[in-house]
Amino acid sequence: MADQKATDLIEEFGQLKQRRLPYDIVNTEIQQNVIPRRTGFDVAHPGRGERHDSQIYDGSALGALTLMAQGFQGYQLSPSYRWAKVKSTFEPLMKMRDVRLWLSKVGDVLFSLLGRSNFYREMHEYIMDAGSFGTATLFISEDTKNARVWFQTRHPREIYIAEDENEVVNVVFRHTEMTFKQMMEAFGEDTLHKDIKNGYDDNPYDTTMLLHTVKPNEHFNPDKEDSKSMKYESTYIDIVNEMIIRESGFNENPYAVWRFYKNSDEEYGRSPAWDALGDIKAIHQYSRTNTPTAQLLANPPMDISAGRRGLIIYKPGARNYREMDDEKIDLMPVAPQYHVGIDRENQVREAIERAFYVPFFLMMANAEKQMTATEIMRRDEEKAVILGPMITGLNHDTLNPMFDRLFDIAYRAG
């Protein structure tokens, strides 16, 4: 018998799916034309190990996206230096030495947690998702067995969101696939439906669908410490059997959802790939059209007399002898305007690279290693101007709530 709460949450999940549907159409185009390995918006069960690049004829968009992700992480979130400081927003407190020392120690603890985790590995994929689909989701979990925090960049196809009145994401539904083995390890045998336990006995690597919901807790009570009185309620649902597997709570939203660009009337984000999608689709067509033209120029058709059929040696340095003038070999005219197509490709390629900030990151990478203090300040100012929207959105949607969650995890752990 289905749980009523499970049924209600599954119904809410259906409503969120309908709201995301228009974005899925565009996200499918982005996946097919920009980042084919992030498949799944157009199929229920994407095949593992399959190729999905049948529409890719030019790698400029993926190359630009990758360079942007590498550049942004390298200049803003590098593990080689401390890229954030813990401060009080109340300035008079920052004038007190003891406060500054305590905040410095807090910063040491937080960055120690990041250093022991997989944060820097996951951030590359996180930026790739944001730069392509416009919405990236980071799940921040507490790994109590190994005394660490752990990060997971969830596939955009799994995530369904809603906002509060301040446009802050406070509802996250994650629809994901798990093996029976993972279900048994994560939740234990006693909480699972008999079909899953039987499936585990038959083949532990068969899969089933799971729904994880995180939303504001209507019964939130800060005076209580039990999991069901926390600020956010968390529910894991066996969606096939409409059965609740686990109910708990979080003091902070464990999902950090970054919208790269955001319209005020939309929950989901947009991105450089959204803005450049017309050019990206065009360059695939240009490259597809110019490929046969280039082949014609490199290996043109030949006009050969019928009497010499099978006698022509066509390889570098070959000698072909003839007795009659009418037995000569002529190249057939193809007269393609290949250079026109290449010029057009290059123009579109440059537009795509500008959309992904490639010229800026290349400029930063090619800058002289030895810079004066004035030059360093100028570079920082350039980063603030060019990357301002990205940095602001990342701070608001990801880094600030992430550090809040890390602080609370560390504080609770003592």
Could you please describe the fold and organization of this structure?
The chain is α+β, with helices and mostly antiparallel strands and 414 residues long. The chain has one domain (4-277, 389-413). 47% of the residues lie in helices and 16% in strands. It has helices at 4-33, 60-76, 91-94, 97-116, 119-132, 180-187, 194-202, 272-275, 277-298, 338-355, 358-365, 373-386, 388-413; strands at 135-143, 148-154, 159-163, 169-179, 207-216, 232-238, 243-250, 255-259, 302-303, 330-331. A 5-stranded antiparallel beta sheet has the order 3-4-5-6-7. Strand 3 (159-163) and strand 4 (169-179) form a beta hairpin. The protein is globular. It starts with a helix and ends with a helix.
The count of β-strands is 10
* Mean pLDDT value: 87
Residue share in β-strands: 15-25%
Oligomer: single chain
Helix content: 40-55%
- Low-confidence residue ranges: none
Assign an overall shape.
Answer: globular
Count of individual helical segments:
13
Q: In what order do the strands lie side by side in the largest sheet? A: 3-4-5-6-7
Distance between the termini: 42 Å
**How much is the radius of gyration in Å?**
28 Å
Structural class: alpha+beta
Number of domains: 1
List the helices and strands and how they pair.
Elements: H1 4-33, H2 60-76, H3 91-94, H4 97-116, H5 119-132, E1 135-143, E2 148-154, E3 159-163, E4 169-179, H6 180-187, H7 194-202, E5 207-216, E6 232-238, E7 243-250, E8 255-259, H8 272-275, H9 277-298, E9 302-303, E10 330-331, H10 338-355, H11 358-365, H12 373-386, H13 388-413
Antiparallel strand pairs: 1-2, 1-8, 3-4, 4-5, 5-6, 6-7, 9-10
Helix pairs in contact: 2-5, 2-11, 4-13, 6-7, 9-10
